[in-house]
Amino acid sequence: MDEKIYHLIDKKGNPYDSTTPGTLGGHKKLKIYGRLDCPSALNYIAKGQYIKYRVFFADEETAVAAGYRPCAKCMKEKYKEWKAKQEK
Predict the structure, then answer these.
(1) Among the listed residues 55, 42, 71, 73, the one whose alpha carbon sits nearest the alpha carbon of residue 11
(2) What is residue 47's predicted lDDT score, i.e. its pLDDT?
(3) Are 45 and 55 in contact (CB under 8 A)?
(4) CA torsion angle for 45, 48, 52, 54 (degrees, to 10)?
(5) DSSP 39-84
(6) Neighbours of 14 (CB within 10 A)
(7) DSSP label at 3?
(8) 3-class secondary-structure state, position 15
(9) What DSSP character marks residue 60?
(10) pLDDT digit of tens for each residue in the chain (88 aa)?
(11) Which domains does the chain have, with CATH numbers?
């Protein structure tokens, strides 16, 4: 039986294949990352949107290194921290 392959994004923003699924999802065009169960992302996916730009990350460190910011809906505290740093 073949192992399932997952398509993730690395710290430089490049795609790669992995046998381990990502722990976070993101939007490639908007450069946002968040939980896989994010209500906002799932709402857009249900409407047939977002899917074209959907990406996955192994962890938060990778998402941040790739230049993505936290989702304001599902990662409110991380987003507030990120936003405060941007305003300095």
Answers:
(1) 55
(2) 92
(3) no
(4) 0
(5) HHHHHHHHTT-SGGGEEEESSHHHHHHTT-EE-TTT-HHHHHHHHH
(6) 9
(7) P
(8) strand
(9) H
(10) 678 899 999 999 999 999 999 999 999 999 999 999 999 999 999 998 888 999 999 999 999 999 999 999 999 999 999 999 998 7
(11) 6-86 (3.40.10)
Query: Which two structure tokens, joined as six digits, stand for 66?
Result: 């790739």
Kindly compute the dihedral angle of the four CA atoms of residues 73, 22, 11, 68, in this order, to the nearest 10 degrees: -10
* pTM for the whole structure: 0.90
pLDDT at 1: 61
Amino acid at 32: I
Cα 54 to chain centroid, rounded? 8
Half-sphere exposure of 37 (CA within 13 A, CB side): 0
| Full 3-state SS string of 35-47 | ECCCHHHHHHHHC
Query: Tell me, what amino acid is at 88?
Result: K
User: Could you tell me if 6 and 39 are in contact, meaning their C-beta atoms sit under 8 angstroms apart?
Assistant: no
